[in-house]
Recover the amino acids of this structure.
């Protein structure tokens, strides 16, 4: 199984992230250094899901295939 990881360079990502996954086959995706809250992830315009980023990890984790992705903060910290 493939793994892809993405990190912010100088500071946490505030509201959105765009990234491309290259290669073949399904894999695990880890995006770190994100702001707390609920994030919506899309692949080429189609919803992948809504995922929570918490204080402990400040990361999103999901499985996906190669393509163009867009993630954006859509809400505050879930209760």
């Amino acid at each position: 199984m493939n793994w892809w990881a993405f990190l912010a360079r100088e500071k946490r990502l505030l509201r959105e992230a765009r990234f491309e996954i290259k290669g073949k086959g399904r894999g695990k995706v880890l995006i770190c250094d994100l702001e707390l809250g609920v994030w919506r992830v899309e692949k080429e315009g189609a919803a992948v899901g809504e995922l929570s980023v918490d204080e402990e990890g400040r990361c999103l984790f999901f499985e996906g295939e190669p393509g163009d992705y867009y993630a954006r903060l859509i809400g505050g910290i879930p209760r």
Notes: Residues 33 and 75 are 17 Å apart (CA to CA). The mean pLDDT is 87. The radius of gyration is 12 Å.
